[in-house]
Known about the structure:
With 303 residues, this protein is of the alpha/beta class. The chain is 34% helix and 9% strand. It has eleven helices and six strands. It has a six-stranded mixed beta sheet. α1 (50-60) runs parallel beside α6. The longest helix is centred in the middle third of the chain and has 17 residues, at 166-182.
Amino acid sequence: MSGPPVFDRFVAIDWSGARGRRYAGIAVAECGPGDAPPVPVEGPGGWWSRTAVFDWLRAGLERGPALVGIDCAFSLPFAVAERGFPGRVPTVFDLWDLVESVCAGEPDFGGAPFAEHERHGADFWRAGPQPDWYCDPHRAAEHACRAEGLGNPQSPYKLIGSKQVGKGGLAGMRMLRALRMAEPERVAVWPFDEPAPGRTVLAEIYPRLFLKRTGFGQRKIRDGADVDAALTQLGSRPLGLAGAVSDHAADALVSAAGLRRLAGQPEVWAPPALDGRARRQEGWIFGVGARTTPAPPAPPPCP
């Protein structure tokens, strides 16, 4: 890639792995180049399902190339996930195929059956106190995010508590696989695919990263004035929302502006720690590691 890709739109999606037909936890925001504020995108009938997000993204390809950030893990820590592929060296696309084969009967790209599977779900902490065998595996991008002080991403294998991300990640993998298969010439999933001119690029985001860079630390944003304060720090004009704002909508709005702010920086697309394993298997969080030297060695792998 000779330089940063050029995009007509910047889209951020706060995602959900919940079971159901529509979810309060999904929010979408969009902005164009320049400094106009991002705007919320309302789902059909006022609610988003994962299938509705897929349909909206696919239809949006006609509007020009977009950088789409989705708040979900695009892969699993391969020190654990590769156990499902004995005798071979799998790629992330092999993992996506495996997740799809297990979850194909689950509606709306649901990923829960994979975590519940007798074999493939055996490494997920699903209930009760932390088991003795659970080692809290993380990907290199998650370690790098912590080392840079940009937040504390949860392990996709931890399905306990309000901050769990595993089922959302598995659902996201199914949706990404479907979109990539449906539009192979028009979408790229970074960093597994090389961005190309005219293609929409989908990237994993961690909204806390953008909030940290705007001075909000670990605090959630739930007020229009705070949304505007964060947008201003990211080079955007204020949106002017009044009163309460859901934290999901706030994450999407701030992340859309953050994507636009970072997209033109070459170092964001090639952070030092983005190695072959990340490009082929584990993926990367957009915006992590661009300001730092390679991440420190990860803790010992799970037994």
